[in-house]
Amino acid sequence: MSYSPRTKAGCLITLLILFSLGVGFTLGFIVSKGIQKKKEDPAFWKQAAMKHLEKLHPDAAQREKLEVHTDKAVAELAALREEGIKNVWQIVGRAVEGIRQELTPEQKEKFEKIRPKSPEEAAP
Predict the structure, then answer these.
(1) Which chain regions cross the lipid bilayer (predicted)?
(2) Which end of the chain has fewer CB atoms at under 10 Å, N or C?
(3) What is the pLDDT of residues 115-124, one digit of tens each?
(4) CA-CA distance, 97 to 71, in Å (whole number)?
(5) CB–CB of 99/91 below 8 Å?
(6) Would you say the pTM of this structure is higher than 0.70?
């Protein structure tokens, strides 16, 4: 069966569009994960806050004072974040223990493979 050049060109353009959409989606996903990871870094929090405060056009003395306040807030937020993560894993740990008590030996074996693991357990 022979296709006209116009049909072949249409198919190739369609394939090119689908390929471009797939590559664009994949790259967008990777970039968004990278941005999300960067936003978890307290150094980024300080940088973002200082950039936002630059809209006020502070002089050098004000900038130093603003940076001190920002450093203090970032340190408090980082500590709060760590405490929150620790609390979350304590709650998950209690739930896992409660679930484990309700399981049969065969189910416990399977559950050990699928149960959520804290960052300390996941990275030996």
Answers:
(1) 12-31
(2) N
(3) 988 877 776 6
(4) 39
(5) no
(6) no
